[in-house]
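Good day; I would like, with your permission, to put a structural problem before you. I would ask you to consider whether the tokens describe a fold that such a sequence might reasonably adopt. The full record is reproduced below for your convenience:
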Amino acid sequence: MTASETTWTAVVLAGQRPGVDPLASHFGETWKALVSVGGEPMVTRVVRTLSQVREIGRIIVLAQDVRAIEGAVAKGGAAELRASSDGISLSILKLVSAEDVAWPVLVTTADHPLLTPDMVREFLGGTGAADVAIGMVERTTMRAAYPANKRTWLRFSDGAWSGANLFALRSDRAMAALRLWAEAEQDRKTAWKLFLHFGPVLALRALTRTIGLGAALVRAGKRLGLSARLVPLSEAEAAIDVDKPSDHVLAEEILGKR
């Protein structure tokens, strides 16, 4: 069965790190997911997008304060709300360990208001049979569309990559990747530090850019006893989440042109 023929459980991460979120505070909100973009909360847009993808059979939203966002979630479509745990990876681990949650699982974030059904379908179609797949956008794709946009880039021999907040977890073998995520979350924006968790050789190759990101993920997956895949995405907007006011301005401009 291909990814497009599979019924996915979509998980939307709508929590935030401890303390005051700068973006939420800037717009007078407590929760980042409720910041309005294009006239409605970001989480509303994400839930609506996922609701329009036929491959997705169920949507679960994780948040620290379920009551605070339930109204915004309901405006987007049918979705369940559950309380998140401490940390992203631990929250997902707890969720996928529940008996009523079925594989495969698509994970995305509530601060992704530019996400479209086509982006989601492209990602799901590229996951193949991998136990874990990660959606990314290469820098040339971003610069061709938004040359002034600043992102954090992971540089490898096959290009410079920015995350699209799209992750596919196909089976319980992905649990090992989630446990590693819990350990390595603070290193997620530095390539060699991230791959140091898989041994010094892979970290050195990442540091010296003598390996592509796709190949590095394959090797890292093998170290965890699973198959991992990079899914390059064709639309620059897939890597534009809204973390700061300048992102918000850009997102408003993009939505205004759609």
